[in-house]
Specification:
Blueprint: E1 2-5, E2 24-27, E3 38-43, E4 48-55, E5 68-76, H1 78-99
Antiparallel strand pairs: 1-2, 3-4, 4-5
């Protein structure tokens, strides 16, 4: 399935104005989906690495150790990591305005 999502207002620009940014076409034909309830982030000067996994501990509140099955590793440039931070912050703010505050910890 291919989803076309406009990245800018598609209104007609006046002559002489800056050209509109290109549209982004999302192709999800080869996409895999997975679930994660644990994430960790490590970084170097050149990259940010996001590690996703699933906590397999039966009772995490009382466990001496957590057993986490890592399933995905995503490596981002610092620029892409910053964009991800901005996008997540915006989406979390929208979510909390609709549903309520998320308590972490």
């Amino acid at each position: 399935m291919t989803d076309t999502t406009p990245s800018v207002d598609e209104s007609v620009a006046d002559e002489g104005s800056a050209p509109a940014a290109p549209r982004v076409v999302w192709n999800d034909a080869a996409m895999d989906s997975s679930f994660a309830n644990v994430i960790n982030v490590v970084n170097t000067r050149e990259e940010f690495i996001l590690l996703f996994g699933t906590n397999r501990s039966w009772n995490p509140a009382e466990a001496q150790e957590w057993k986490v099955d890592l399933s995905n590793r995503i490596t981002l440039t610092p620029h892409a990591a910053k964009r991800l931070q901005i996008l997540l912050q915006q989406r979390l703010q929208d979510y909390e305005e609709r549903v309520g505050s998320i308590s972490v910890g």
